[in-house]
TrEMBL record:
Residue ranges occupied by any Intradiol ring-cleavage dioxygenases domain in the UniProt entry: 2-51
Name recorded for this polypeptide: Intradiol ring-cleavage dioxygenases domain-containing protein
Coiled-coil stretches noted in the UniProt entry, renumbered to this chain: none
Pfam family, one: Dioxygenase_C
Top-rank taxon: Bacteria
InterPro entries, alphabetized: Intradiol_dOase_C, Intradiol_dOase_core
Length: 137
């Protein structure tokens, strides 16, 4: 399985989109023998009209390493964690996110099932694990 993740920077800008160059805050990994992949990144920023989120895409691979399909979704963060992060620089330059989870159209349509259980703090960093079951049949 190939796993892709991507998100915006602290000020809400995506690399490689709308004239922004580069591939920052984007990554891909093939899962290990247990079906796991691990990513290390910064906390995502926010942009108008959307809750704080990280995109992910799962692509099953055949024996030749070619993708045989794809599933794309997003992971969301608890509002208490967002508030703690956005009170600190450089996130504080932009201020509090304008769209809480409860007002985000994607979150309201089942996104609560994609809410991360986050551990840590804004000084030492955060960790989160999320298991995804994908029916390939």
């Amino acid at each position: 399985m190939l796993v892709d993740v991507w998100h915006c920077d602290a000020l809400g800008t995506y690399s490689g989109v709308a004239g922004n160059s580069g591939d920052a805050l984007r990554g891909s990994q093939v899962t290990d023998a247990q079906g796991r992949a691990s990513f290390t990144t910064i906390y995502p920023g926010w942009y108008p009209g959307r809750a704080v989120h990280i995109h992910f895409k799962l692509r099953p691979l055949n024996a030749a390493g070619q993708a045989t399909g794809e599933f794309t979704s997003q992971l969301f963060f608890p509002e208490s964690v967002n508030a703690a992060v956005f009170a600190r620089a450089p996130y504080s330059q932009k201020g509090k996110a304008d769209t809480p989870n409860a007002q985000d159209a994607i979150y309201r349509n089942g996104g609560s099932q994609l809410l991360l259980s986050v551990k840590g703090d804004p000084v030492g960093g955060y960790t989160a694990t999320f298991d995804v079951g994908l029916n390939l049949g």
